[in-house]
């Protein structure tokens, strides 16, 4: 089958193109540009690439066209496919109908932690003898790609040491990051509604993607719809520490629920089966004790800082052990070898003894947890946070007060200009006010006029032993490479 993807160079669409290629299809794709890293990757995977959006790209006529959710309804290539009678679909239906068929999907959903937890689940299943397929919205460092087709069949493994669980026989796992963003201009439903989860993780719920969900109630409805779609023989691993998760799952789940939390969390009245207790670690390893049903399952190690990453690990262990029967002992061996995901606490280099991290954090909760994790990992030296408000949510004033608290772990904060100038002035995040609030809280803060100004300040101010955290969900104007070069010089 010839599959053509319009707007193929996005993270999700590019991975879908790779999956179709692995499934043996002839795959082509179009986009306005093919910049690294996705452009060269698509070429290496054998995807035929066409620049721009042009109806001529549909000659000869493909068997199926997948329209990316960045396409507007007036996209000339998408319009030609739809109006010309070509079979077309979106990424959500393409995954559900063509990729996830004959698998047991494990869908990881939530406002925060999806990419890391998805990658962790994939690694644990892979290392405990399953052969999972996966699609991750980032690049997991333990795998060469962000995707893999599920094996033809996955052997059911012994579960004697899986904390006493004997889950129902499932097909080979397919781990997929459950994105709540809408699917396409002709299909305004969340992507994760179409992923057919048999096992799911719900990490957290905080209002996000305000361009799609203008009210929090609409955002909650998306998660309620996902939870209600899990079949009765399924399992949902849900955070008892998030009151919105507790409310949605308690009201809409038809399947078994495994609640998880960390010791000391407010569990909102839920009886927690999977409990993590952070313990002293060494050699860059964050240690935690794991309890399943009140029974000690051992001490686990994780090479990622922050309590939120321990929560992610507890959720991943619960989903793979209780959901699929993965061996707890083998999970314990595999977890310390999980390398994480690019752009999540990603150490880019240490020029002149100055640590430079890249992180995708942009929601105030993610910013707060990321910075506290890095401060705990590197308590010596200053922590300098450099933040680009770029997403539709980050550029708005709806989290003005939360941002004023989110940078509490940083010794110095540099703010880049807003990444979206189309937000109405009265609704924009007020950077001047944010700087004043941060200074009033005792911190150092500055709103820069440009990336060049940020670079100049960092080169002038940073000293050996300091840690710089570059926080953005975009390319941040290429600051990462430029900063490493400038500090090295």
Can you put this structure into words, describing what you see?
Helix content is about 30%, strand content about 20%. By secondary structure, the chain is an alpha/beta fold. The protein has 3 domains: about 1-90, Rossmann fold (3-Layer(aba) Sandwich); about 100-335, UDP-N-acetylmuramoyl-L-alanine:D-glutamate ligase (3-Layer(aba) Sandwich), CATH 3.40.1190.10; about 345-489, Protein-Tyrosine Phosphatase, Chain A, CATH 3.90.190.20. Strands 8-7-9-6-12-13-14-15-16-17 form a 10-stranded mixed sheet, with helices on both faces. A 6-stranded mixed sheet has the order 18-19-23-20-21-22, with helices on both faces. Strands 3-2-1-4-5 form a 5-stranded parallel sheet, with helices on both faces. Helix 7 links the parallel strand 13 (about 235-240) and strand 14 (about 255-260). The radius of gyration is 22 Å and the shape is globular. The termini are far apart. The model has no long low-confidence stretch (mean pLDDT about 90).
The 3D shape can be described as globular
* Low-pLDDT stretches: none
Assess the beta-strand content as a share of residues: 15-25%
What's the total count of β strands? 23
Helix content: 25-40%
The CATH architecture term of the largest domain is 3-Layer(aba) Sandwich
Instruction: Please identify which CATH superfamily of the largest domain we are dealing with.
Output: Mur-like, catalytic domain
Structural class estimated from helices and strands: alpha/beta
Number of alpha- plus pi-helical segments: 14
Strand order of the largest sheet: 8-7-9-6-12-13-14-15-16-17
Distance between the termini: 52 Å
State the name of the first-level CATH class of the largest domain: Alpha Beta
Largest sheet: 10 strands, mixed
CA gyration radius, whole angstroms: 22 Å
CATH topological fold name of the largest domain: UDP-N-acetylmuramoyl-L-alanine:D-glutamate ligase
Mean pLDDT: 90
Number of domains: 3
């Amino acid at each position: 089958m010839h599959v053509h993807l319009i707007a193929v160079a996005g993270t999700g669409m590019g991975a879908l193109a790779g999956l179709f290629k692995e499934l043996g299809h002839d795959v082509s794709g179009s986009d306005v540009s093919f910049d690294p890293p996705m452009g060269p990757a698509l070429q290496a995977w054998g995807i035929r690439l066409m620049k721009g959006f042009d109806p001529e790209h549909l000659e000869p006529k493909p068997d199926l066209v997948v329209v990316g959710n960045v396409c507007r309804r007036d996209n000339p290539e998408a319009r030609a496919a739809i109006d010309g009678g070509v079979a077309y679909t979106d990424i959500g239906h393409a995954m559900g109908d063509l990729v996830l068929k004959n698998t047991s999907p494990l869908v990881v959903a939530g406002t925060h932690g999806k990419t890391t937890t998805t990658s962790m689940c994939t690694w644990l299943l892979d290392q405990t003898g399953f052969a999972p397929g996966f699609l991750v919205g980032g690049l997991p460092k333990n795998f060469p790609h962000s995707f893999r087709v599920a094996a033809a069949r996955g052997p059911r493994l012994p579960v004697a040491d899986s904390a006493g669980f004997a889950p129902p026989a499932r097909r080979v796992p397919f781990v997929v990051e459950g994105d709540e963003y809408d699917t396409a201009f002709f299909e305004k439903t969340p992507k994760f509604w179409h992923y057919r989860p048999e096992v799911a993780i719900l990490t957290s719920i905080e209002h996000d993607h305000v361009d799609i969900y203008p009210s929090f109630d609409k955002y909650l409805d998306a998660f309620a719809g996902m939870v209600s779609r899990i079949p009765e023989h399924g399992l949902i691993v849900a955070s008892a520490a998030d009151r919105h998760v507790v409310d949605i799952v308690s009201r809409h789940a038809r399947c078994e629920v495994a609640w998880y939390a960390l010791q000391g969390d407010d569990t909102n009245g839920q009886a927690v089966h999977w409990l993590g207790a952070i313990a002293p670690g060494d050699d860059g390893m964050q240690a935690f004790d794991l309890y399943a049903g009140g029974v000690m399952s051992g001490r686990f190690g994780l090479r990622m800082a922050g309590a939120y990453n321990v929560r992610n690990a507890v959720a991943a262990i619960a989903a793979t052990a209780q959901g699929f029967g993965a061996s707890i002992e083998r999970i314990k061996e595999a977890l310390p070898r999980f390398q994480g995901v690019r752009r999540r606490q990603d150490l880019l280099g240490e020029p002149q003894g100055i640590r430079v991290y890249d992180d995708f954090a942009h929601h105030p909760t993610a910013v707060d947890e990321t910075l506290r994790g890095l401060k705990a990992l590197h308590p010596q030296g200053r922590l300098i946070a450099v933040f680009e408000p770029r997403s539709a949510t980050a550029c708005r004033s709806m989290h003005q007060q939360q941002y004023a608290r989110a940078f509490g772990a940083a010794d110095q904060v540099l703010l880049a200009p807003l990444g979206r100038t189309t937000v109405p002035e009265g609704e924009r995040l007020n950077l001047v006010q944010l700087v004043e609030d941060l200074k009033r809280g005792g911190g150092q803060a500055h709103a820069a006029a440009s990336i060049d100004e940020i670079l100049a300040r960092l080169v002038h101010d940073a000293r050996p032993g300091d840690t710089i955290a570059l926080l953005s969900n975009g390319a941040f104007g290429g600051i990462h490479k430029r900063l490493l070069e400038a500090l090295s010089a």
